[in-house]
Amino acid sequence: MEIKRALTIAGSDILSGGGLQVDLATMNNYSLFSFLVLTSIVTVDGESLMISEIDSNLFASQLDSLRDVHLDVIKVGLLPSQELLDLTADFLEFKKQEGTKIVVDPVLVFKESQDQKVISLAEQMNKRLLPVADLITPNLLEAESLAQMEIKNPSDMVEVAKKLYALGAKNVVVKGGTRLLEKEALDLFYDGADFYFLDKDIIKANNTGAGCAFSASIAANLALGKKALDAVKDAKDYVYQAIKNSNEYGVFGKHEN
Prior knowledge:
This protein is an alpha/beta fold. It contains eight helices and nine strands. It has a six-stranded mixed sheet, sandwiched between helices. A three-stranded antiparallel sheet has the order 7-8-9, sandwiched between helices. The protein starts with a strand and ends in a 13-residue tail after the last helix.
């Protein structure tokens, strides 16, 4: 049986609670052969996260190293600058021509509500990443920033999903997490025709890295040939189990065939 190939373009989390560590572990759980392009190194200073961006020339060299490698799926995570975002978009457009599936987890680091860097990155994501994405997985804050609309209830999730689909993403998952409902973690899937709400009971546990695991699981499922909605459903189950097995640093998942 042919082993499918995945690439994650992501940052490194020193505590392994998210980022490339979770992406690679998740893809390995689905028996994919995984490649990595590093965007940044995230360290901890007291209670603050410090993001050290990879030099753009080195980042470009990483991408160029994989131009001739066949990839079944690419998952995009933290892109800390517009320069790295543009380089990534160029690479995705090239790989898209080869039929590679693309999952974008539009990670935005919010320092304040009107952070200009976040606003600029969101605008650039809308222009360059969403049009090449087979599926995007923003959380509520990221979806609000991309769509420029506040989300207060499930109906707002529907309207935001419509806006993000109109920007070019072929499938949209808005991750409601634990913010909207008291007892359920609610996500919304939209494929341009139908809306599907997916919910699971909220688990009182450390869910650091759940978003990375979710999008990496979706990417793995797409590489293995699953339809978008089926990929999302499987990923929802995978992350639920990962949160149940989490420790103080983050999620731990194991895919059951």
